[in-house]
Amino acid sequence: GESVGLHLPTLSVQEGDNSIINCAYSNSASDYFIWYKQESGKGPQFIIDIRSNMDKRQGQRVTVLLNKTVKHLSLQIAATQPGDSAVYFCAENRPTDSWGKFQFGAGTQVVVTP
Amino acid sequence: EAGVTQSPTHLIKTRGQQATLRCSPISGHTSVYWYQQALGLGLQFLLWYDEGEERNRGNFPPRFSGRQFPNYSSELNVNALELEDSALYLCASRNPGTSGTNTGELFFGEGSRLTVL
């Protein structure tokens, strides 16, 4: 069936390096994508979003890239810090779904090592 | 400003019992969403309430229900509990009047951990 999924369940990154978290989606009709970060014991926190009419969007230390040709989404974190250790979820909103009814992927655990 | 608050933090029930989880949204937020997060899995959309009405529900059986009160707080009820209902239940809120479809930012609480024995 159609789903949002992640390539790597765990990503180990050295402090100061850049992180790249990947996400594949299969519903070509999806027109909005969002990344959330969930630290241990906390609820998910919004990071950045992108619409399907864009291929790149930058935030503070984060960049989201969207490749609609291969239905691929990535989150890049520059100069990864210990506070970036968390589970990262990508999510999509399909035009047929209500706003806020997001389809979440299973998540990628990012571990930042000193 | 207080964030989304959920109670209880932890809840232990046995099969067949009922569970009630509560959520207080951020002040001014009229939309409340409920998501289920089973261990090791992503978030699964459960319910969406806005202005006291159920606006949409996910692919969950009818024994998952809820309501939204006039003060916009919300309850999630799970009847006839099954072992697979064990999960973290997350509540999120937003103000569609100001956010519209400009952003999908939902403000999540820390969740209620339900364990069914």
Distance between the ends of chain B: 37 Å
Q: How confident is the prediction overall: mean pLDDT of chain B? A: 93
What is the number of beta strands of chain B? 11
What sort of overall outline of chain A do the alpha carbons produce when their principal axes are compared?
globular
Q: Give the helices and strands of chain B as they follow along the chain.
A: EEEEEEEEEHEE
Strand content of chain B: over 45%
What class, by secondary structure content of chain B? mainly beta
Number of helices of chain A: 0
Radius of gyration over C-alpha positions of chain B, nearest whole angstrom? 14 Å
**Strand tally of chain A, please?**
11
Structural class of the helix and strand makeup of chain A? mainly beta
Largest sheet of chain A: 6 strands, mixed
Walk me through what this model shows:
The complex is a heterodimer of chains A (114) and B (117). Chain A is built from no helices and 11 strands. Chain A starts with a strand and ends with a strand. The mean pLDDT of chain A is 89. In chain A, strands 2, 4, 5, 9, 10 and 11 form a 6-stranded mixed beta sheet that branches. Chain A has strands at 4-5, 10-14, 19-25, 32-38, 45-51, 56-58, 62-67, 72-77, 86-93, 103-104, 108-113. Chain A has 114 residues and is mainly β. Chain A is globular, with a radius of gyration of 13 Å. Chain A is 0% helix and 52% strand. The model of chain B has no long low-confidence stretch (mean pLDDT 93). The longest helix of chain B has 4 residues, at 96-99. Chain B is mainly β and 117 residues long. Chain B starts with a strand and ends with a strand. Chain B contains 1 helix and 11 strands. The radius of gyration of chain B is 14 Å and the shape is globular. Chain A binds chain B through residues 4, 32, 34, 41-46, 49, 89, 91, 93, 97-107, and chain B through 4, 31, 33, 35, 40-45, 48, 55-56, 58, 90, 92, 94, 96, 101, 103-111.
